[in-house]
Amino acid sequence: MTDEVLVRIKDVVKEFPVKAGSGFGHGKRLLQAVAGVSLEVRRGETLGLVGETGCGKSTLARCVVRLLEIDGGQVLFDDEDLTTAPHAAMLPYRRRMQMVFQDPYGSLNPRRRVGSIIGDPFVIHDIGSAAGRKRQVQDLMALVGLNPEHYNRFPGEFSGGQRQRIGIARAIAVRPEFIVCDEPTSALDVSIQAQILNLLDDLQAELGLSYLFIAHDLSVVRHVSDRVAVMYLGRIMEVAPSESLYASARHPYTRALLSATPVFDPDERREHPEVILTGDPPSPLNPPTGCRFHPRCPRAQARCTAEIPALLPRHADDSGHLAACHFPLSDGEIL
Amino acid sequence: MSAKPIIAGRGPWQLAFERLRNDRTAIACAVTLVATVLVAIAAPLLALVTGHSPIEQFSEAGLSPTGIPVGPGSTFWLGADGLGRDVLVRIAYGTRVSLLVGVVASTLAVIIGAAVGITAGWFGGAIDNFLSRFMDGVLSLPFLVLALALAALVGPSLGVSIFLIVFFSWASIGRVIRAQTRSIRDREYVQAARALGAGNLRVMLVELLPVVSPTIIVYATLLIPSAIAFEATLSFLGLGVPPPTPTWGNMLADAMAYYKVAWWLLLFPGAALLTVTYTFNVLGDSLRDALDPRHDQTIRSTGGDDE
Questions:
Q1: Cys-Cys crosslink for A300: which of A170, A304, A312, B129, Cβ 3.0 to 4.6 Å?
Q2: Is B250 a domain residue?
Q3: Which residues on adjacent β-strands are paired with residue A218?
Q4: Contact state of A109 with B189 under an 8 Å Cβ cutoff
């Protein structure tokens, strides 16, 4: 891992038009799924991105690989602005960044053979000869732990974990530098999750990959990430190196998320009592003013409803640990 | 070499084929259709064996002294028609026209319908709006009025028949394919293809087409009988293939003058038409069940109580 930034996400905004009400005479409203997010992914690192369902993390992922056009901000890949590039100019970058999808059942075309699915990147980017393609695909299948003899099978003949391996083989086929993993393990059995996480880890070491790893499970993210960003309702609440985030979370939301992970040691539970948040996440159609977390925050004060907190180092943290909170927790403080 | 696995995996097409093989109705239909194709191919052989060409008029052997056509017998196996022509040989030659029109017209209609439907469904927006309104327009045109007008304008022929059938058939398939395309365009495998850098054409041909192809196959099969019936209608009205070329439609039209004294003129071409259209329709249903097993139960359970 180096300090060289590979992907720079700058103030990205993504809005979806939503039909308000029903019938005639109602205008369209905008749902701001991503409300000004800035993040960096450094070469060779894994940046974890966690948040509840609906907080905009998958939308952000699709904006980064430009499956969605963004409505504000920039995504820079290797210092090249991809957000305004015409689609034809995107092709070389598509080769350098890839995506692994959440649903191993939905991300493989059920009517196509696995060999042809994994071979897609070679055809699209015109790599190698048609004659050598089967060999290339079978090498990839072996690399991700699939039986190369299953080349001619259909996705329906594989288990969830095997399908996710197929999706990973397709993503690494073009030897990308950067892969967005959109909850790659959340649809899998726990025993299979570990296999897939280890595979991603091995491939990172072998191919020098950088990951943006999205999950809603903090224990998974902790296992794989060098740094972790916490997202809530379209905004980044806190971003820090893994150890630092888990040891001394500054944002009350991060603390609440951390306390929701099951703890098996009763002593540890006594030291870190579980924080139960009240209420549901507010609708992104009508986000709270100021800090978006304030209606559910036990520490919220008047300032939180009025002023949006900036993402800054809090207390004595260095520039690597940023939190967007007016009243950050100090080390060991109980929420 | 490792031992072969006992339980072999099967792809979606293979599964559909297995289901068809176990479907007696489908097998019966397939056998009937193969027989029909053989009759069409063997039509000249039949003419040779009977010694009757399809357009030759036997005014002595085929007609009674009073001018009434002779019935089925050893010379004319299925009887003779009003001009003393052999009904059996004419039906066999008519099979050629019917199958040709049915297969060619439904193939063309399905290709156009699928292309327009996938394009409209994938691009959406203004392209979808334009194509969808165009399909609505085609579907609201009165078939017979336009057929009469066009046939009067350029004269009846096989080509005009096929054109008319295609023109009035593709839009209904197009709408179905468009709807299905819209329902799958946001699937993750389509996004995965786009993330890889696949262009519009590749997404449509490689990702979308294989998924909608079962629907295309079912519609193609169901369109063949309606195309055959369309052609028979056009020929019956004198707008199809011009005489003396025999078609089932113009044979039925000729029968109208004689059916009171010569039942075979109506019965045999009518039976041929009914058998082939019915068989294709039943086969289409079987194909739909085989290609989409979820249809199997729903059709039968909601199909009424006495069927």
A1: A304
A2: yes
A3: none
A4: yes
